[in-house]
Amino acid sequence: MDNYDVEDPAAAIVKDTGKVAFRFCPECSNMLQPHEDAATETLVFECSTCHHIEKSLTACIYRNSLKEDIAETPGNVDDVLEDPTLPWTDEVECKKCKHHGAVFFQSQQRNAETGMALFYVCEGCKHVWSTLDDSKK
């Protein structure tokens, strides 16, 4: 089974995420489109190319999530220690290795709930932490 396959191909909602999954035709690999089977008044997915039909196990074909909790992420921090344009401080201690010395930068994912966040990358062990970590406790 590929990494992209859902365990149950007839399931429309991906496990543990609550998100609606795309469904693809097993015969021609085109995307299946939702339609109503007028005779049985049920939801089916039909391929517009080869007309393969699959019954839907759920009535959900679209989910509009108005707000998702997206965690702040620093992005790629592999080369930030060598970046001469980033500020450095020895006033913070790494919680992992207790080293005093870190490069820090501002989060680019600001919103009303979180405000500004600073990310620190330890000089000693490359551990990443944020000012948001302290505010969550």
The proportion of residues in beta strands is 25-35%
The separation of the N and C termini measures 40 Å
Shape: elongated
How would you classify the helix and strand content by structural class? mainly beta
**Biggest sheet character:** 4 strands, antiparallel
CATH C-level class of the largest domain: Mainly Beta
Radius of gyration: 24 Å
Question: How many separate domains?
Answer: 2
Number of helices in the DSSP assignment:
1
Low-confidence stretches: 1-13
Spatial strand arrangement across the major sheet: 4-5-6-7
Number of strands: 7
Helix-strand sequence = EEEEEEEH
Query: Can you tell me the CATH architecture of the largest domain?
Result: Single Sheet
CATH-defined fold name of the largest domain: N-terminal domain of TfIIb
Average predicted confidence as pLDDT: 75
Helical fraction: under 10%
Please tell me about this protein's structure:
- One of its GO terms (molecular function) is nucleic acid binding.
- A zinc finger (C4-type) spans 25-50.
- Zn(2+) 2 binds at residues 94, 97, 122, 125.
- Zn(2+) 1 binds at residues 25, 28, 47, 50.
- The chain has 137 residues and is mainly beta.
- The chain has one helix at residues 131-136, and strands at 32-37, 42-47, 53-55, 88-93, 100-106, 118-122, 128-130.
- The strands form 2 sheets. The protein has a 4-stranded antiparallel sheet with strand order 4-5-6-7. Strands 1-2-3 form a 3-stranded antiparallel sheet, with no helix packed on it.
- The relative contact order is 0.13.
